[in-house]
Specification:
The protein is an alpha/beta fold. It has one domain: TIM Barrel, CATH 3.20.20. The protein has 18 helices and twelve strands. The strands form three sheets. It has an eight-stranded parallel β-sheet with strand order 4-11-10-9-8-7-6-5. Strands 1-12 form a two-stranded antiparallel ribbon. The chain has a two-stranded antiparallel sheet with strand order 2-3. Strand 6, helix 7 and strand 7 form a beta-alpha-beta unit. The termini are far apart. It binds flavin mononucleotide (FMN). Flavin mononucleotide (FMN) binds next to helix 2, strand 11 and helix 17.
Length: 382
């Protein structure tokens, strides 16, 4: 199987599985506990159906949207994800270049493997910096200032990861950073020598968003420890209100799932929220983000930008979320599997397929602009 044989999410996933050592594939593919939220995220789209209009004159389609003050050529962006150079040596550089090619936004994680400064210089497509809140308030201030001076336009604070989710697949393989693989995990690496060659022939693995602030070799020795020792579980609305004030720009909370939290986000001055359950990787048993979207849009959709992620695999999933009222939609695993499969050309193919699906589906729906999508296009099954 090769990249040209990939026509959808499942094909990218299959190719990624072929290329990656098992522990890394399962880190991307897995969710928390029994993975029930992870499964429901995509299944939730099946509970409603699109109702197309015909004879609408659809020779040209405009997929552009403006969200968080940024003009995007398509309503789908690459959600921030950790450790990308582990999946393919091009890592964040590949994702940034592909996002630029399709004129969309991408997020760089606090646990990214290329620095926000380098990425900001590489591309001029909008970048969001995904932030975790540390116990050390000075560190938070310094990191925010650093992102500001790099020219990052959007701050995205993740609020659903106050503690790490229970990823049992990782426990079974021994996946952690740095690697502490169990015997089974080591065998899985030995089975993928091409990945290992590639990984070890390129620049040494690092976490440049944190390296200059935190000595990862001493006090903090693993990502697990980072979550336990460095992040602040006492983070509350007052803390975030201060951050919003300090940032003084587009500020978005990622991982809001309730109507009342969406309201509070407006009250503290956020300009956006992402309705997201972290792709089912945090609280298993939580509702699918799609099922929760309409009540949040009803609450704050006229006041701030409501974005959406978790479970998107198809253009029609995107159209359903936009019809409910999301302003833009993030993908995670879809572009990560494509990255693992083939680097930059892989991510480009994922975005190209998404773009083509959206254009075709808009035509079939009888819509020429994203604003024309509304709840009139949807019917929920009883
Ligand atoms: C391997 C992996 C790593 C991720 N790392 C982060 C991260 O560092 N910060 C964050 O806010 N979200 C992270 N996420 C969550 C994504 O940003 C996004 O919310 C999620 O993947 C969307 O669900 P989907 O994969 O079903 O599209 C990660 C997701 C995956 C799959």
């Amino acid at each position: 199987m090769r990249l040209k044989d990939c026509h959808n999410f499942h094909d990218f996933r299959k190719l990624a599985k072929k290329r990656l050592p098992g522990p890394i594939f399962h880190y991307i593919d897995g969710g928390a506990d029994d993975e029930s939220t992870y499964r429901r995220n995509t299944l939730a789209f099946e509970q409603c159906d699109l109702v197309p209009d015909v004879l609408a004159g659809v020779s040209s389609i405009d997929l552009s949207v403006t969200v968080l003050g940024q003009k995007l050529d398509m309503p789908v962006y690459c959600s921030p994800t950790a450790l990308q150079r582990l999946f393919h040596h091009q890592g964040e550089r590949a994702v940034a270049a592909a996002a630029q090619k399709y004129g969309t936004l991408f997020g760089v994680s606090s646990l990214g493997t290329v620095s926000i400064e380098e990425i900001a210089q590489q591309v001029d497509t909008p970048q969001a910096y995904q932030f975790y809140f540390h116990k050390d308030r000075e560190l938070n201030k310094v990191m925010l200032a650093r992102a500001k001076s790099a020219g990052v336009p959007v701050m995205m604070l993740t609020v659903d990861s106050i503690t790490g989710g229970n990823r049992e697949r990782d426990l079974r393989t021994g996946f952690s950073i740095p690697f502490h693989l169990n015997f089974n995990g080591l065998v899985q690496f030995a089975l993928k020598p091409a990945w290992a060659m590639n990984y070890f022939m390129h620049e040494k693995f690092s976490l440049p968003q944190l390296d200059s602030h935190v000595d990862m070799s001493a006090g903090v020795s693993s990502i697990g420890d980072y979550f336990t020792n460095m992040l602040d579980p006492s983070m509350n609305w007052d803390d975030v209100a201060q951050m919003v004030e300090q940032w003084d720009g587009q500020f978005c909370l990622k991982g809001v799932m309730s109507r009342q939290d969406a309201r509070r986000a407006v009250e503290i001055g956020c300009t956006g929220i992402v309705v997201s359950n972290h792709g089912g990787r945090q609280l298993d048993g939580s509702r699918s983000s799609f099922d929760q979207l309409s009540e949040i849009v009803d609450e704050v959709g006229d006041e701030i930008d409501v974005l959406f992620d978790s479970g998107i695999q198809r253009g029609t999933h995107v159209l359903k979320a936009l019809s409910i009222g999301a302003k833009a939609v993030g993908i995670g695993r879809m572009y990560l599997f494509a990255l693992a499969a083939a680097g930059q050309v892989g991510v480009e193919r994922a975005l190209e397929l998404m773009n083509k699906e959206l254009e075709r589906d808009m035509k079939l729906m009888g819509k020429t602009t994203i604003e024309q999508l509304s709840r009139n296009n949807l019917r929920f099954r009883q």
